[in-house]
Amino acid sequence: MPGFSTRAIRAASRVPDAPQPPVNVPIYQTATFEVADAAELAGLLSFERAGHSYTRHSNPTHAALEAAVAELEGADAGLVTASGMAAIHALVMSVLRDGDDLVIPRAVYGGMVGLTGSVLQRSGIEHRAVDTTDPEHVEAAIGPRTRLLWLETISNPTTAVADIAALANLAHARGVLVAVDNTFASPALANPLALGADFVVHSMTKYIGGHSDIIGGVLVAAADRVQPARDVIITAGGNASPFEAFLALRGLKTLALRMERHSANALSVARALEGAPGIARVLYPGLPSHPQHDLAVRTLRDGMAGGMMAVELAGGRRHGEQFLDRLRVAVHATSLGGVETLVSHPASSSHRQLADDDLAAAGLSPGMVRLSIGLEDEVDLIEDLVGAARQAG
Ligand SMILES: Cc1ncc(COP(=O)(O)O)c(C=O)c1O
Questions:
Q1: Phi, psi angle pair for 200, to nearest 5°
Q2: DSSP character for 277?
Q3: 3-state helix/strand/coil string of 94-118
Q4: Is the pLDDT of residue 350 over 90?
Q5: Prior bond of 157 cis (ω within 30°)
Q6: Are 367 and 313 in contact (CB under 8 A)?
Q7: What is the CB neighbour count within 10 angstroms for residue 257?
Q8: What Rg do the C-alpha atoms of the chain give, in angstroms?
Q9: How does strand 342-344 pair with strand 368-372?
Q10: Residue whose CA is at the smallest distance from ligand 1 atom 9
Q11: HSE on the CB side for 115, CA within 13 Å?
């Protein structure tokens, strides 16, 4: 009879038979998977055989989430990663080589500015940042070694809307692939692959997770484009945890409902803030005053415009800071896409990598605050935000 420790380890590792499928995808919280022989393991490690060998390579909870997001985005395959940045990094490293370059929007998430200006530049990959709302600027920026055009469906934080269909046509005509960060819209509001994009990434930390309690990313594309990105994750690390994949799966189930409420609340808040005392400008794609309002209506589902807006305080940086201090319902924190309204000041947080000139070029100003409108009662949000702007002004 084996000793107690041996029996305990065996007994506690026995996977139960579960003839009735669970309603929710189980969390396969395991680093590794048992194989029958060396040939099976070799087949799994080289992806010649279906199944799982080691969670850095793949895991059933990840696979369920990858299939779900791929289906919702209209893609063949997906790759779940430890963060949105891990997905972005895996994508760009799978496409670009030393000497290549990529075109990015001037108005883009600060983490992308950080990645292009540091890791990519050190790897010999150059970038050009242009106003992607003007196709002529994009055309002019594409050179002989340009391999990738980077877009955000709705840009962070200025909410510029990308004309994905027109820019994908233009890029493809020059042999350039198109990747779209669809984080602000979520798959419930936009499907960039259907508009011609080759890759879609999400920070699942935001709307897909939806509760500000996970960090995760996902990349979807044709299967032969996902595998090279998976190879980057396998060799450099950056895989997600099964628990976070489980929470992201749970988030997907209520995504459509949450996006409806985020969009309805945000439209009401945007209308209340536009022209209110202390407010110079409201940038929300759902407002007719937004520079790409018509494009937003064409691009985003059912007239919804999501929960993100940029608000310019009339009194510049000082009033921006005072506004944040006076909020009682909205929470001053970085990140976005959660059930709670989150407010941040890009110039000192998400876009801190940008010098003042680059901030201005990206359409940002020191007094601009970013609002991620949550699911609270609309009247409480309006009172809080309009009141804080009045007191700051
Ligand atoms: C548009 C966008 N893309 C990507 C990221 C990066 O995501 P993560 O923080 O999950 O790495 C963020 C984070 O704020 C974002 O706003």
A1: -125, 135
A2: T
A3: HHCCCCCEEEEECCCCHHHHHHHHH
A4: no
A5: yes
A6: yes
A7: 12
A8: 22
A9: antiparallel
A10: 84
A11: 19
How far is the centre of ligand 1, averaged over its atoms, from the C-alpha of 86 (Å)? 10
* pLDDT, tens digit (0-9, with 9 covering 90-100), for 178-231: 999 999 999 999 999 999 999 999 999 999 999 999 999 999 999 999 999 999
Burial of 104 (0-12, 13-18, 19+ CB in 10 A): buried
* pLDDT tens sequence across 12-40: 999 999 999 999 999 999 999 999 999 99
Strands 177-181 and 146-152, sheet pairing: parallel
User: How many angstroms is it from 45 CA to the middle of ligand 1?
Assistant: 30
At 121-146, the pLDDT tens digits run 999 999 999 999 999 999 999 999 99
Residue nearest atom 12 in ligand 1 by C-alpha distance: 203
Closest-lying ligand 1 atom to the alpha carbon of residue 88? 4
Residue 393: which pLDDT band, with cuts at 50, 70 and 90? low
List the one residue out of 208, 173, 176 whose CA is nearest residue 81: 208
The pair of structure tokens assigned to 313 is 């305080």
